[in-house]
Structure formats: structure tokens, C-alpha cells
Write a structure and sequence with these properties.
- With 390 residues, this protein is of the alpha/beta class.
- The protein is 33% helix and 25% strand.
- It is built from 13 helices and 20 strands.
- An eight-stranded mixed β-sheet has the order 13-12-9-14-17-18-19-20, sandwiched between helices.
- β7 and β8 form a beta hairpin.
- Bound molecules: cytidine-5'-monophosphate.
- Cytidine-5'-monophosphate binds next to α11 and β17.
Length: 390
């Protein structure tokens, strides 16, 4: 998926098409743009031409003479068509078979996936006619990126704001990546733990680790994109909560995480333990702040439950996937854990990749087979991990 045909319609969010185009170019896409006549009142074709480095097409009849019919050649050229912003009007036109300008004609003429990134006034967004049109289009190769909530250009507060440009790109990329999973995660119940745990010393201090939760969140997002019902049990992170999860459960300590996992384990199909669970916690929690005194302070630690080990003992139909972040003898340690914890897979990585955007991993399967995946963005790696497990 490299060629994106972007359709810009005349909602006030049309100006965001500039940032969207620039983000796509930075990610290596070739972008061609069609604007509706109304969109040109909000943002000039020149802006989008400069950013896309391609001529922008508006009018069906004033284009330079071509040997090919323009709307058909654009429809063929694209790998995917994205309408951003998509107004009430364009959705209504396509749902009702109207093709009266360049953009609607190209949408009608393409058999490639078409994504509508919706943006409009909240009342229009809640109009049941829009809903009916969307439902009708969803039966075909049309996909919708729902609007977000917030303060709208008309000063109304509600649903109707264009989803963040980065998230629109994520939705589209994950659609294509999810295709590679061939529906194998569809409706599967997936339980994922992620992030660090915090083991309280007193109301102010705690013991923790450097886990960012990025790998777990990427796995959750990929599973959601592939149609799974995902429960994400997360320690404290600075990450944005993935969209469309079945549940998001926020915990602090390992014992809390244990309880949340235990109550869901029986009914899940796949359990991915990607959190960096603290192995020890302070033996005694001080309900009041520990004051500093002369000399050293000693804190005794006691063992936390090993969540994955316990679930490994209870495993019946579930697929169990563990992670092993190590500083040394990475694969030997991972192999040992795979056996000890009765896992189906273990993903071994160097602890240096904690908190990084990229990761290099080995996926080791019960019985010995091993796959190495060289440095990749965690968001992409998540799909490789899923592909392998399935
Ligand atoms: O034994 P180690 O902690 O290195 O094993 C790593 C795997 O075990 C990870 O999947 C991690 O989430 C899980 N784990 C756990 N409970 C612990 C410690 C680790 O579930 N107390």
C-alpha cells in the first residue's frame, strides 16, 4: 500500500488535509489529491500541490487533455482512497449513487478500499440519515473513521471533530496489516498485560521499572484492528489508551494485576503477558510517609506472585505468550522460562529496548522452533508477533 488518493471535501477541517498530506509524505507514500469545489474555498489547491508534489485535480472538465480518462486512471492508480475530511454531503452522495463531480465520480469508479474520515457539526453527525448511509456503505468496500469528541468549529461541543491525523493513518495502515492476519483473530478473546507495576513503599514512594508499555499497547491495537475482543490490563504508563478495546483496566501493584488477570483468564482464548511485573514488593507498607533519619534505611522485600507461571498451571484451551526482557544470555533464559511457565510462545528481547520505539526480538515456540525479527517499529512488530502466534 504505497499510493494514496486523497479526497478533500468542503468541511472546515479541510485545512487539516495539509498536515495529513505532509505526514503521509514523510512516511513514504505517494499522494495524489482531488478536492471538491467547496474545499478550495477553505484551503488552496496550491498548498496541497506543494505538499503532495503532484497536481491537484478539482474540475472534471478543465484538466489538460489526457489519453486516459482522468477519473478512471486515478481510480486505477490508487491502492487506497481516503476522504479527509468526509462531510455529511459526500457520504450521502456516495450512498445514493450520485457522481456529479470529480471526487464523487472517482469514488464511484474505484474498487479499492475507501476510507471516510468523518468530520462535521454534532447535529449533522447525529442525524440518523448519516447513520443509515454509513450502514449501507459498510456493506461494500467503504470504511469509516469515526469523528472524535471535542469543541467543534461551530463552538458546539460533541462528536464531530476529525480524528487526529496520525490516528487516521494508523487506522488505514492497520486495516492493511490486519488483512495479513486473515481474520484469524476475529472475535477472539485476547487478554494482554502491559507496562510496569508499582510496588508501594509508603503513600509517596514505590519500586518500579523502566517498562513503557509500548509493546503491549501495540499488540492490543493490532489485535483490535484485526477484530479481536481485547482486555488490556495496564500498569501506569504515559501512553494514550488504544481505541475500541473491550476493556481497559488500570492497576498499580502486581497483586492487583494478578487478580484482574485471574478473573478473566478462564474465558480468554489468548493471554499475552507483556508487562514487566515486579518480582518483589516491600514486605511492609507504611501508611504514613517514612521520615528520613541518620544512617541507612533498609527495606525488606517479599516475593510477588508470578502471574504467568500461575496461569501456565491453569492453562486448558488458552494460548499463552510470555515476554522475556534480558540483559544477558537472552535466548537461553527465554527458553528456560518457556518451559518453566508452560508457555506456547516466548518473545525474547534485550532489556535495552525498554522504552524505545523499536525492538529486535526472537519468537521461540514450544518445541524449539525460533524466528528472529530484526529491528522494527513496535507497532509493526506487533503484527509479526500475532502472525506467528496464529
Ligand atoms: O521470569 P520473568 O519475570 O523474567 O518472566 C517474564 C514473563 O513473566 C513476562 O511475560 C512477565 O509479564 C511475566 N511475569 C509475571 N509475573 C511476575 C513476573 C513476570 O507474569 N511476577
Amino acid at each position: 500500500m504505497k499510493k494514496i488518493l486523497l479526497g478533500v471535501t468542503g468541511g472546515i477541517a479541510a485545512y487539516k488535509a495539509a498536515n495529513f498530506t505532509s505526514l503521509l509524505k514523510k512516511r513514504g507514500y505517494e499522494v495524489k489529491i482531488i478536492m471538491t469545489e467547496n474545499a478550495t474555498k477553505i484551503i488552496t489547491p496550491l498548498t496541497l500541490e506543494t505538499l503532495s508534489k503532484n497536481p491537484v485535480c478539482v474540475d472534471m472538465w478543465h484538466e489538460k487533455a489526457h489519453y486516459e480518462v482522468e477519473h478512471i486512471s486515478l481510480a486505477h492508480w490508487a491502492d487506497v482512497v481516503v476522504i479527509l475530511p468526509a462531510t455529511y454531503n459526500i457520504v450521502g452522495k456516495i450512498a445514493n449513487g450520485i457522481a456529479d463531480d470529480m471526487l464523487s465520480t472517482v469514488i464511484a469508479a474505484t474498487n479499492k478500499p475507501v476510507f471516510f474520515a468523518l468530520a462535521m457539526n454534532v447535529q449533522m453527525y447525529e442525524n440518523p440519515i448519516l447513520y443509515e448511509n454509513i450502514e449501507k456503505l459498510k456493506k461494500y468496500h467503504y470504511h469509516f473513521i469515526e469523528a472524535a469528541e471535542g469543541m467543534l468549529a461551530c463552538q458546539d461541543v460533541g462528536k464531530g471533530k476529525l480524528e487526529k491525523e496520525e490516528d487516521v493513518i494508523w487506522e488505514i495502515e492497520s486495516y492493511f496489516l490486519a488483512q495479513t492476519l486473515e481474520g484469524k483473530l476475529k472475535n477472539k478473546k485476547v487478554l494482554i498485560t502491559g507496562g510496569p507495576t508499582e510496588e508501594a513503599i509508603d503513600p509517596i514512594r514505590y519500586l518500579s521499572n523502566r517498562s513503557s508499555g509500548k509493546m503491549a499497547y501495540a499488540l492490543a491495537k493490532a489485535a483490535v484492528a484485526a477484530g479481536a475482543k481485547v482486555s488490556l490490563i495496564s500498569g501506569p504508563t504515559h501512553l494514550e489508551k488504544p481505541r475500541r478495546l473491550q476493556e481497559f483496566v488500570s492497576i498499580r501493584g502486581a497483586r492487583e494485576m494478578y487478580q484482574e488477570v485471574e478473573s478473566r483468564f478462564e474465558t480468554c482464548d489468548i493471554f499475552v503477558s507483556c508487562s514487566a511485573v515486579a518480582d518483589y514488593r516491600p514486605k511492609e507498607y507504611s501508611p504514613i510517609k517514612i521520615k528520613k533519619k541518620e544512617g541507612d534505611l533498609r527495606i525488606d522485600l517479599e516475593r510477588n506472585p508470578d502471574i504467568l507461571l500461575e496461569m501456565g498451571k491453569r492453562k486448558s484451551h488458552q494460548i499463552l505468550v510470555g515476554f522475556a526482557a534480558e540483559t544477558n544470555d537472552i535466548e537461553e533464559n527465554a527458553q528456560r522460562k518457556l518451559e518453566k511457565k508452560n508457555l506456547d510462545y516466548i518473545v525474547a528481547n534485550d532489556s535495552k529496548t525498554m522504552n524505545q520505539e523499536v525492538n529486535t526480538v526472537s519468537i521461540i515456540k514450544k518445541g524449539g522452533s525460533k524466528l528472529e525479527i530484526q529491528e522494527k517499529a513496535k507497532e509493526e512488530l506487533a503484527y509479526d508477533i500475532w502472525k506467528n502466534i496464529l
